[in-house]
Amino acid sequence: MVASHLEASVDALAEARRSNTQIDGLAQAPASTDEAHAIQDVVFARLGLEIGAYKASTPVGAPEKRGLIPAGMVRQSPAAMPAVQVPHCGVEAEVAFRFLRDLPPRETPYTREEVAAATSVLPAIEVLSSRFRSPRTRPELEQLADCMINGGLVLGAETKNWSHLDLPRLEVTLTINGETVLQRTGGHPTDDPLGITVALVNMMRIAGGVKAGQSVATGSWSGMLFLKPGDTCVASFSGLGTAEVTFSA
Question: Rounded to two decimals, what is the model's pTM?
């Protein structure tokens, strides 16, 4: 449920998703993280969208945030994603976690150890696109209401036994059309991608829990890059693998 003054915003975002069109902004922006999350939830419920994955962040000094990703927009690498579906063609290299079993609602928070034991790790490319024509010009809470301007998620092969990996120190390489545009060691915004996953699990602990097979993208190692139809992006993480997406025209 959302407050009555936010119904027009739900209507606009739901229609933009349904018709694959874009809007300039919301008639009434959410006033809090909770309101933005509620708009996401109602849009998904109204359209009958299954949650296939999440994106999450834990900003310093601000509430934790999550974005819902439809199951139909979670793809296995190498993926061809039509640019008409994701017109902004944005990419971020990320490490993702997949839940190997349900982590259902409960009163007590899930621990880091419990979450680690219930997940596998995957290289990923978060595809960034939005229901807004110019998403980066919109207020932060509007972007959050639009699922943190997520367009989809491309996942590489999963690693189930990952305790030997020093995740914050992985080397990441990003190539666009075969040209290396980034290569460095580390780069995760908090140096703790598992910590982001724990935060997501505990956000959802009071909102239905997370399900086996769902994934979570945990933050960009590469910054945000915007490509064009026909471009191919490959994100590689040392010891973990690669994810690849082509924006088909």
Answer: 0.97
